[in-house]
Amino acid sequence: MALTHGLDSGRPRRVPRPLARLAVPLAGRTWREFGHLVLGMPLSVVYFVLSVTALSVGAGLVVTFVGIPVLALGLAMCRGIGTVERARARAFLGVRVGAPDPARAEPGSGLTGAMWALLKSGASWRHLLYALLHMPWAVLAFSLAVTFWSLAWGLATYPLWQWALPVHAGVHGIQLYGDGAHSYVLDSAGELALTALAGVLLLYPAAALVRGLAAVDRAMVRGLLGPSRLATRVVELESDRGVVVDAAAADLRRIERDLHDGAQARLVALAMDLGLAKEKAAEDPDAAARMVEEAHDEVKLALQELRDLARGIHPAILTDRGLDAALSAVASRCAVPVAVSVDLPSRPAAAIEGIAYFTVSELLQNVSKHARATRATVDVWRTGDRLLIQVADDGHGGADPARGTGLAGLAERLDAVDGVLAVHSPDGGPTTVAAELPWRA
């Protein structure tokens, strides 16, 4: 379904997908992409001339050492070209590509260091490659897009401009055939209508061609003008490391708080009660016995709190018996009936197993607290080298990671280990949350 905004209600209104497809030739995206292809041809010629000149002059003079600064200057110019092309892709193609890391010179190395940094930068050479490769592609894309797009719109609007043909010069319309003695001209009302219909039908393959050519431009911008995959991966790992550190710190604070407010406070009270019982043992044995009995009950509660805390850190049943038994135990504590299905040929890595356990635990807690469901299901299986988890309920829906339901933090934790969390929860339900983790056995 395609979304538009209704002015009457202020809420998104769904437009049937067939109607959205009929409007493709008129869509702003199609015209922006066509404009990108038209503008790309003259710009690419300029880029090509400048980059080839810098490369050939620099390479020719490199034996005199004059070519090195010329090459460095040319690479810096290509980086400027990349800045322009990323901005153009953002404006016309709707694709946002981050700038690659700048070519950093060693501190104190001066102009020489800056030149060598440009020459050693892989991003600089990728920008040069873009300037060289984009010109032939842009010429081809320009020719195809302008030819078919102009032809389609020209035929579709033929009845509107046919009158402008110079009738006094003997031109009554588009001539399909003529040999001096006979000619066939599209000038009758029926022929005008058929020509316009043919143009309208041609608009759809022409629009598809424009979008396909623009998709190639998107790929070139992403592949050659953005950060390298290695640099992107380093940034992701640094971000994931921060998430893991923050999550570990939060867990430690939670454990400290639970110990301080729960078991520790209960044990302090227990020690005081036992001290009073000891004092009363000689003078009032019955009162002392009652106090010891109360202290015994407190010991049981303290032990239960410690067991719950230990289960929250890492349940023993998970270590001993695996995900099937551990998730069944979690499901038994849920407020609604839960059907658990675990189909795993073996056990994954302990860290992944623990993350899967706590993912299901948190999702079932959300079901108990927020979903107002009557039943839920948990399915766990392996596909290739990925561990897949799906938790579904028949509640009222509306779960959204952006609303602070805990799903956003869960998604960050999964992302820290190259996992993925997907939530489908329309208003009115049902809710399905799928998680994907690496197997790493």
Plain-language structure description:
The protein is built from 13 helices and 9 strands. The longest helix has 52 residues. It is α+β, with helices and mostly antiparallel strands and 441 residues long. A 5-stranded mixed β-sheet has the order 5-6-7-9-8. A two-stranded antiparallel ribbon has the order 1-2. A hairpin with a 6-residue loop joins strand 8 and strand 9. The chain folds into 3 domains: 197 residues, no CATH class; 84 residues, Single alpha-helices involved in coiled-coils or other helix-helix interfaces (Up-down Bundle); 119 residues, Histidine kinase-like ATPase, C-terminal domain (Heat Shock Protein 90). 23% of the residues are buried. 64% of the residues lie in helices and 12% in strands.
Decide which structural class fits the backbone: alpha+beta
How many beta-strand segments? 9
Helices, by number, come to: 13
Strand content is: 5-15%
Q: How do the strands of the widest beta sheet line up side by side?
A: 5-6-7-9-8
Q: Cα distance, first to last residue? A: 40 Å
Helix content: 55-70%
Shape: elongated
Element-by-element helix/strand order: EEHHHHHHEEHHHHHEHEEHEE
> What count of structural domains?
3
Mean residue pLDDT: 79
Low-confidence stretches: 1-16
Q: Rg to the nearest angstrom?
A: 35 Å
